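Researcher: Last one for today. Full complex below.
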Amino acid sequence: MPTPGEYYQRDREWQPPAYTHDYKTSVARSPRYSLISLENTVSEITGPTFGHNDIDPLDNDMIHNYARSGESAIGERIILHGRVLDENARPVPNTLVEAWQANAGGRYRHKKDTYLAPIDPNFGGCGRTITDENGYYYFRTVKPGAYPWRNWVNNWRPAHIHLSVFGSGFVQRLITQCYFEGDPLIPKCPIVKTIPTQEGIDSLVAALDLNATIPLDSIAYKFDIVLRGRRSTLFENRLEGN
Amino acid sequence: MVQKVDYLKETPSQTAGPYVHIGLAPGAAGFDIYKQELGKDIAGPIANGERIRVEGLVIDGTGSPVKDVLLEVWQANADGRYAHPEGGGPVEEGFRGWGRVITDFATGEWGFDTIKPGKTPGRNGSVQAPHINLWIVARGINIGLNTRMYFEDEAEANAQDPVLNLIEWENRRGTLIAGRSERDGQAVYRFEIRLQGDGETVFFDI
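Model: Here's the assembly. Have a good evening.
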């Protein structure tokens, strides 16, 4: 029986470390001992699978998925679209992408959010979709607002959408945040700055994509998501696997 | 100039933040939006094996419960198969092996119902003791933490488990083993996850 291909080691110098002093909540929530490195077993190379029975076709339309009939969420209408790829630039098809965000005023629909901006009665703030055979996904939503948060006294989060992605193995599980091109708050944010390199930060900024806008309707941003790559099954005459 | 090794870089992780429930479990955030939320039924109705409950707390470096954490569970069925094309074979109808676990916002207590998994294949012909993989995200956790939960009443299998035995510090292996008790005739396992400080749980780079 061939040995299943392993996932590439995660680059921990590229990813944010657990302890990041200026993002204060991480101080008491970061392990102090080193992570113990495991070679992949079946427990890691497998992961949950999802199908279209799991979600509703309207789930990726945050402008309408919580709105009363005939109404829609308030704010700058946007399309967030892109592809889920792996480190080999291969598309990751049929994978669940979940998104959540504040409304256009910067307020979350959560009982713990006490920011004084108003709740939008027609905006839930979450959506989900499954990538197509080419790894492509899109959401229709409103651009989230910036909002203040309790870290330093005067911290404001840049506009962002949280994204959760699965891939095909549990090792690929990832949650990230997508920011928007041109936002002056990005370089000020202690959460953004948990990422060690400017190149890494830039990779979380969605580009304005005028070609994908719908004229007189919605503006568009493009955001590709890259999950860990994987060797192919090892063959004796191709030891590197690929 | 040498040639370029042309791989893409993995997207950097960012904290799930305090409102992860809005995206992944909106019912817990206080509103209904989806016809069905995902990850609520891990084993399904007809899975073989012992029905168990797993409960615990996630505790931070100050000794306080983390009340806004979200855990994901990934496990094999009682035959040691995962519900995945590479998982070793077919599983029972409705067995997904994956679940989402939300803490009580007031106490930080979490719990889930499932079946006890079987032994799974390890590397190089070894056998892994029954275990549940866990992935932990929350505000303040910059990249999801991976750990494993093993079962106290599998002492013999645990002693041979290649992953537990990989942990050089034998006194830390116990941080991965859940204690068993019974409540109303059902097995209940208790698993405390310590992010930091005395008894810090072993986390894995997988």
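Chain A touches chain B through 87 residues (CB under 8 Å). The helical segments of chain A are 42-45, 198-202.
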